[in-house]
Write a structure and sequence with these properties.
CATH class: Alpha Beta
Number of strands: 7
Strand content: 15-25%
Bound molecules: S-adenosylmethionine
Strand order of the largest sheet: 3-2-1-4-5-7-6
Helix content: 40-55%
Shape: globular
Order of helices and strands: HHHEHEHEEHEHHEHHE
Structural class: alpha/beta
Number of domains: 1
Largest sheet: 7 strands, mixed
Distance between the termini: 47 Å
CATH topology: Rossmann fold
């Protein structure tokens, strides 16, 4: 399987290596720090039976499924995603569960629901792939009931933690990765977006996803290869850079952390 550039891939899943991206989400969900992050989100949201929840950019739908167990049949969870392939996979994975879960195709900024439809909106690792962040906040505000909660988790790619002896090249690579996303610094910017959109009782906590070398390569390998294709880095530079990380891994010293922030606020 080729290493897909995820910045392009998750913006256009249906035109990309869909299998790579679906397997990627499955494997990311299995990671301990990812599960800890979701548990923290659920604790903050405190979902009650009867509540109506929207998960925007739900991908393969596993977290929407987990939330549907909490709303009970008097409530509901709706997952939406711009990708038909993701929604088809979500339907396939969660069919026959008899939970109040529906999934459908829709772009984040144009959700096919009436105003004041939801008690909770949640979005994880989606806004980094979008440019129109203000429009998305307007849409979320429209969809939330007064007093409803918005919870977003996203990454600040400038804060990627990746110890490497070649600090200069590592900084260039991190900068290139961050700038490859339409909103690579969204994790750091979320707090201001919540404030600007009039949310109250805003809570914010850092949360990092720590991944092994194999998954780290799947996350950033394709992006770095795009940098080589565009002559930002040479093949030799990049191969040498990875070789150092492989040496660290063989010595049990590889470490990476994708630093993000969980932010939650209440609609006025
Ligand atoms: C990294 S995945 C995260 C999926 C899921 N939230 C999770 O945590 O596993 C990003 C998802 O955002 C979706 N996406 C990208 N652009 C979108 C947009 N404009 N509107 C809605 N979803 C979008 C992709 O199709 C993909 O499923």
């Amino acid at each position: 399987m080729q290493n897909q550039d995820i910045t392009e891939g998750f913006q256009h899943v249906d035109q990309s290596q869909t299998g790579f991206l679906i397997k990627f989400l499955e494997d990311v969900h299995r990671c301990e720090t990812v599960q800890e992050g979701f548990a923290k989100q659920l604790a903050w949201l405190n979902i009650q039976p009867g509540q109506h929840v929207l998960d925007v950019g739900c991908g393969i739908g596993d977290q929407a499924f987990a939330m549907a167990k909490l709303t009970g049949k008097t409530g509901s969870v709706t997952g939406t995603d711009i990708s038909t392939a993701m929604i088809t996979m979500a339907q396939h994975r969660h069919a026959m569960t008899h939970l109040p879960l529906q999934v459908l195709v829709a772009p984040a900024a144009r959700q096919p629901f009436a105003e004041d439809s939801f008690d909770i909106i949640r979005t994880e690792r989606v806004l980094m792939y979008l440019k129109n962040i203000e429009e998305v906040f307007v849409e979320y505000t429209r969809l939330l009931k007064p007093g409803g909660k918005l919870l977003i988790f996203d990454v600040d790619w400038d804060a990627l933690v990746l110890p490497h002896p070649d600090k200069e090249l590592t900084r260039s690579i991190v900068e290139f990765i961050s700038d490859s996303f339409p909103s690579g610094r969204i994790g750091a910017e979320l707090f201001c977006h919540f404030k600007d959109s009039g949310f109250k009782d805003i809570q914010i906590r850092p949360h990092g996803y720590m991944h092994n070398l194999e998954l780290t390569k799947r996350i950033i390998g394709g992006i770095i290869s795009t940098g080589v294709d565009h002559n930002v880095f040479t093949n030799d530079e990049v191969n040498g850079w990875w070789a150092e990380l492989e040496r660290a891994d063989a010595a049990g010293q590889f470490f990476s952390c994708f630093q993000g922030f969980i932010v939650m606020g209440t609609r006025n």
